[in-house]
Design a protein that fits this description.
The structure holds two protein chains of two kinds.
Chain A (H helix, E strand, L loop, with lengths): L1 H4 L3 E4 L5 E4 L4 H19 L3 H18 L7 H32 L8 H16 L2 H12 L3 H25 L4 H8 L4 H35 L7 H10 L3 H29 L1
Antiparallel strand pairs in A: 1-2
Helix pairs in contact in A: 3-11, 4-7, 4-9, 5-7, 6-7, 7-9, 8-9, 9-10, 9-11, 10-11
Chain B lengths: L2 H8 L4 H18 L10 H15 L3 H5 L6 H30 L6 H16 L2 H12 L3 H25 L3 H9 L4 H35 L8 H9 L3 H31 L1
Helix pairs in contact in B: 3-12, 5-8, 5-10, 6-8, 7-8, 8-10, 10-12, 11-12
Classes of the chains: A mainly alpha, B mainly alpha.
């Protein structure tokens, strides 16, 4: 279509052969992007003037949070522990559940087309739901508290680890699997000795990585009543106790940093 | 002893390590089981679960299909706009930060300092940023744009830095040797190497920002989140159903488009 409006340029090479160079599409892309930006600016009431004049408020907020109120730390332990428990349990259950889901979604292991596409659809539907929304629904079903957070994190982990794992399983070398089947092993045995050793390291490493992210998610789930430090952040902002918020965030940064370092150590070891 | 058995015995024996790691993991699991409690879950929880499901299967079609300012399509469009502008704001801020954090461009201590700043930016939860920006711009989609922008910085910068650190400097050396100016080196030596990678990363982040933007409404930062939480708190499950259906379809669509675009960018 684009080529018809702007015909390709003809270039005669020294050898006498003519080649066609297609016109660049950059102007079209830039035009489309500019239109999208203009439209979005209108829809979102984007206002650069307000940003420049009032950005001071943002730094004032940060100023209010520093220095953190250290005497608030003792009140924090229980919530921080709940956040960690939620993300640990959610990640562990989620990555265990992701195993059967991923196997069911791998075309090279399961022959049943219907089952494979069903599993894939379930995984991608789970992945689209934002964790906070699942947590919100879970608080209605399981009541307020860390249990709702565990469920939300578990569902997210299933979808994330499950997707990466089935991609891994679909890309393995099927040679050992076929060899084992041909010497008379059942499919289950062949799966245990040919597929699992190939995907285990990356499976563990994905699960660890997902756990790292989940700690960060778990810290906001309390905002909808699913337990953990999110609840405290919400309360403290409500009471305008910004020193307390600063303390919570400092504690979070330290915790996340420690967990990331430990998990990175093990992930490097695995691969 | 056959050679096979010898080979088996020669394998490194790290049983103690494995046992320790398993024990630690089991201990952590036992500790975290404290988070499980079914005491708050009663009959009404089950009823609500059933009602949510029936709400999703019987969505409020009027809300889903009309085109007023409160309807699902309009709010979804606003959510896309928030994610889009936020990605652009994030990318604009991230590019200079990425060059400051790349250890082959600036001296080591400067790169290290920028990285420390990035860790701090990344750890503050999105909702806290949302609340901070609402003080700047008042509640509304603009606060959402700023929030999405600042939460994108962490990942965008990290991936940009990876691309910058893998720059092929041989191209630049050969350009110097044939006498190119600095501008020519940047235009024909650096930009072609970085542009497609940067674009691909940015499109991927846009895809993620859709999810981010859809929850920011919970703190009043525009988009589909606010109507969702209002509908839930007033137990209007068929409205919840129609919002969720719209959201899922939109996110799947954007994910599909983003995958197509990135595949084309990688192929060149």
């Amino acid at each position: 279509m684009y080529d018809k409006i702007f015909p390709p340029k003809r270039i005669v090479l020294p050898s006498g052969k003519t080649v066609l160079q297609r016109r660049t599409r950059v102007p079209l892309i830039v035009l489309l992007l500019a239109a999208a930006v203009a439209w979005s600016v209108q829809l979102t009431e984007f206002n650069l003037h307000m940003l420049v004049t009032r950005i001071g408020e943002f730094f004032k907020f940060i100023g209010d949070m520093t220095p953190p109120r250290w005497d608030y730390l003792p009140h924090l332990w229980r919530a921080l522990a709940a956040t960690l428990q939620m993300s640990l349990l959610g990640s562990m259950l989620g990555s265990l559940l992701a195993l059967p889901m991923a196997v069911a979604a791998s075309t090279n292991i399961i022959r049943n087309r219907a089952l494979v596409s069903l599993a894939k659809i379930v995984l991608s539907l789970l992945r689209t739901l934002p964790t906070l929304v699942t947590a919100l629904i879970a608080t209605f079903v399981f009541g307020l508290g860390p249990m709702a957070g565990v469920v939300a994190i578990m569902l997210f982990t299933v979808s994330y680890v499950g997707k990466l794992l089935y991609e891994q399983i679909e890309n393995i070398d099927m040679g050992p699997f076929e060899a084992m089947e041909s010497i008379g092993m059942t499919r289950l045995e062949a799966f245990r000795y040919a597929v699992i050793p190939q995907v285990l390291p990356s499976y563990l490493s994905t699960s660890l990585f997902c756990f790292e992210g989940n700690v960060r998610y778990a810290s906001i789930l309390g905002y909808v009543g699913a337990g953990g430090v999110g609840l405290l952040i919400n309360e403290n902002i409500g009471w305008r106790d910004y020193g307390g918020v600063g303390m919570i965030i400092t504690a979070l940064i330290v915790t996340v940093y420690v967990i990331e370092t430990v998990s990175e150590h093990f992930r490097k070891k695995l691969i | 002893m056959t050679t096979l058995e010898k080979q088996l015995l020669a394998a490194p024996n790290n049983r103690r390590y494995r046992v320790t790691v398993t024990a630690i993991v089991l201990l952590l699991l036992a500790w975290s089981l404290a988070a499980v409690s079914f005491k708050d879950m009663n009959e009404s929880g089950w009823n609500i679960a059933v009602r949510i499901l029936s709400g999703i299967t019987h969505p409020d079609l009027d809300l889903l299909l009309n085109v007023s300012e409160q309807s699902v399509p309009y709010l979804l469009l606003q959510t896309v706009a928030i994610a889009f502008m936020g990605t652009i704001v994030g990318a604009v801020v991230s590019v200079p930060l990425a060059f400051l954090a790349a250890s082959n461009i600036v001296p080591k201590p400067a790169a290290w300092l920028t990285r420390l700043l990035l860790i701090a930016i990344r750890t503050i939860p999105a909702l806290v940023y949302g609340l901070m920006f609402i003080r700047v711009s008042g509640p509304g989609p603009f606060a959402g744009v700023l929030t999405v922008g600042i939460t994108s910085i962490g990942m965008l910068t990290k991936l940009y830095v990876d691309a910058i650190e893998e720059l092929d400097v041989r191209v630049l050396e050969s350009m110097t040797s044939i006498g190119c100016t600095t501008f020519e080196k940047v235009r024909f030596g650096i930009i072609p190497q970085l542009l497609s990678l940067f674009l691909s990363v940015t499109i991927y982040r846009f895809d993620m920002n859709m999810r981010e933007a859809s929850i920011l409404g919970l703190v009043g930062a525009g988009g589909i989140g606010a109507p969702l939480i209002f509908a839930m708190n007033s137990y209007k499950w068929n409205q919840v159903g129609s919002i969720l259906i719209g959201l899922v379809i939109l996110i799947l669509l954007i994910e599909w488009i983003s995958n197509k675009l990135r595949a084309r960018l990688v192929q060149g």
